[in-house]
């Protein structure tokens, strides 16, 4: 791929994308007054005539930006951020030619729908993905399409356009078959005239990577690293150990809990005498919600070693509503930030391949199955259905000794009833009777 060529102007520039299309780049204020970078693609190829045309438009936009009179919606009525400006002004979207004004378009319904999709109604991560997917991919291409006219061809066009941008199949499916589908499904529930072509879409089979557990030695080395590590908390040489990091990771490795569940645990949810921990909520992107499933609301049993590790982690004057695990700034641990520390530890210990925090859960389950722990008990402990455990972790059920025993039965030589007769193999001949 060649290097992108960029024609620069003051306040606005024109660049050639990897797909050979011309695109504007400029800085302007978002509706909330924050300066931001904008990238608005055109449908024009990189030809001499098209370039001159786009360059003239860039000069005009640059002049308006410098003068402070730039109107985003005038230049890009269907732009990537048009929905933000329309919501800020309260003005209804301008229909394109040939679009009925009495119908609910994708853009019009999205403006109302997204206002309802906030925490705690849905998870903060889902709300973030909805806004990102519609702003970056859906509204620019299908914003003016009426919901009742939405067809399989529209979805195929959206998929083709996203593939041209080099997006992975997983991302494309998340945009179309998760975010877009969720909005149209809700529109159908609001008794609007809606076409629902999503079941007609055909997707390539998913390639789901299997679990990647650590060995016991790798697990112990990582825990030793966090136990001895000193963390920077202030000035250039201001470092100190932080025991809650070690206790948090130890509990991940020895309970099989999800990181989002463990960071939300409060002091009042832990009973060290009964050796139990109650999972009542999960935390992600700073927002808390109930666990995803009823099975995930459970009582987790703690090992004796885990109880000993947790005792120093609970402060003497801690209140029941205080978080059990906090970072060096006395705030709840965020899994995304802790993953950076976890990855650095693996690099320092030369552990390969690098794994994420969910591998702590993989390690717990794989070792439990290898040591013949009851599937029913393990399902209650981890909040994972027995069928799911067998599907993803079934290969860890058989120990190496059991595998060797079964393989020896296959490889054991059989006693042959055949004998060599010259160069052929045949049955043993019966002994001849002696003639008296």
List the helices and strands and how they pair.
Elements lengths: L5 E3 L3 E5 L4 E9 L5 E11 L2 H20 L4 H4 L6 H8 L16 H11 L7 H19 L9 H13 L4 H21 L26 H13 L1 E3 L6 E3 L1 H13 L3 H4 L7 E2 L4 E4 L2 E3 L2 E3 L8 E4 L2 H7 L24 H14 L9 H13 L4 H8 L3 H8 L6 H12 L6 E4 L2 E4 L9
Antiparallel strand pairs: 1-2, 2-3, 3-4, 5-6, 7-8, 8-11, 9-10, 12-13
Helix pairs in contact: 4-5, 4-7, 5-7, 6-7, 8-9, 9-13
Instruction: Classify the secondary structure makeup into a structural class.
Output: alpha+beta
Rg over alpha carbons: 31 Å
Order of helices and strands: EEEEHHHHHHHHEEHHEEEEEHHHHHHEE
Shape: globular
Q: Identify the CATH architecture of the largest domain.
A: Orthogonal Bundle
Record the strand order, biggest sheet.
1-2-3-4
For the residues shown, what is the average pLDDT? 84
Largest sheet: 4 strands, antiparallel
Task: Give me the CATH fold name of the largest domain.
Answer: hpI Integrase, Chain A
CATH class membership of the largest domain: Mainly Alpha
Report the sheet-strand fraction.
5-15%
Q: Give me the number of helical elements.
A: 16
What count of domains describes the coordinates?
3
Structure description:
- The protein is α+β, with helices and mostly antiparallel strands and 436 residues long.
- The protein has three domains: 74 residues, no CATH class; 131 residues, Orthogonal Bundle (DNA polymerase, domain 1), CATH 1.10.150; 180 residues, Orthogonal Bundle (hpI Integrase, Chain A).
- Helices cover 43% and strands 13% of the residues.
- It has 16 helices and 13 strands.
- The strands form five sheets. A four-stranded antiparallel β-sheet has the order 1-2-3-4, covered by helices on one side. A three-stranded antiparallel β-sheet has the order 7-8-11. A two-stranded antiparallel sheet has the order 5-6.
- The N terminus is likely disordered.
């Amino acid at each position: 791929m060649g290097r992108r060529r960029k024609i620069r102007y003051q306040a606005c520039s024109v660049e050639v994308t990897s797909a050979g299309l011309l695109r504007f780049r400029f800085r302007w204020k978002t509706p909330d007054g924050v300066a931001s970078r904008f990238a608005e693609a055109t449908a024009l190829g990189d030809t001499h005539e098209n370039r001159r045309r786009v360059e003239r438009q860039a000069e005009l936009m640059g002049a308006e930006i410098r003068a402070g009179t730039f109107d985003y919606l005038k230049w890009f009525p269907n732009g990537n951020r048009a929905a933000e400006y329309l919501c800020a002004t309260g003005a209804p979207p301008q229909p394109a030619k040939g679009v009925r004004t009495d119908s609910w378009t994708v853009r019009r319904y999205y403006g109302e729908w997204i206002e309802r999709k906030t925490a705690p109604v849905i998870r903060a991560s889902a709300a973030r993905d909805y806004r990102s997917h519609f702003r970056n991919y859906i509204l620019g291409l299908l914003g003016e399409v009426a919901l009742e006219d939405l067809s399989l061809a529209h979805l195929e066009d959206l998929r083709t356009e996203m593939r041209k941008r080099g997006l992975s199949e997983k991302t494309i499916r998340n945009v179309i078959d998760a975010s877009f589908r969720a909005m149209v499904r809700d529109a159908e529930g609001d008794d609007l005239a809606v076409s629902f072509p999503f079941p007609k879409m055909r997707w390539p089979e998913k390639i789901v990577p299997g679990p990647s557990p650590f060995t016991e030695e790798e697990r112990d080395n990582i825990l030793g690293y966090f136990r001895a590590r000193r963390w920077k908390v202030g000035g250039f040489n201001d470092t100190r150990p932080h025991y809650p990091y070690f206790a948090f990771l130890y509990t991940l490795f020895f309970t099989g809990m999800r990181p989002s569940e463990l960071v939300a645990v409060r002091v009042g949810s832990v009973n060290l005498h009964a050796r139990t921990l109650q999972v009542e909520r999960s935390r992600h992107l700073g927002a808390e919600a109930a666990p995803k499933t009823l099975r995930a609301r459970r009582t987790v049993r703690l090992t004796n070693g885990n109880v000993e590790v947790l005792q120093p982690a609970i402060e003497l004057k801690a209140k029941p509503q205080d978080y059990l695990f906090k970072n060096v700034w006395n705030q709840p641990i965020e899994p995304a930030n802790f993953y950076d520390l976890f990855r650095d530890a693996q690099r320092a210990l030369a552990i390969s391949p690098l794994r994420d925090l969910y591998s702590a859960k993989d390690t717990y389950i794989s070792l439990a199955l290898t040591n013949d722990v009851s599937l029913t008990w393990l399902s209650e402990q981890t909040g994972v259905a027995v069928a799911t455990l067998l599907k993803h972790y079934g290969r860890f059920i058989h120990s190496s000794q059991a595998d060797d025993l079964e393989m020896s039965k296959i490889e054991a030589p059989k006693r042959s009833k055949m004998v060599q007769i010259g160069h052929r193999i045949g049955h043993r001949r019966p002994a001849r009777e002696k003639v008296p």
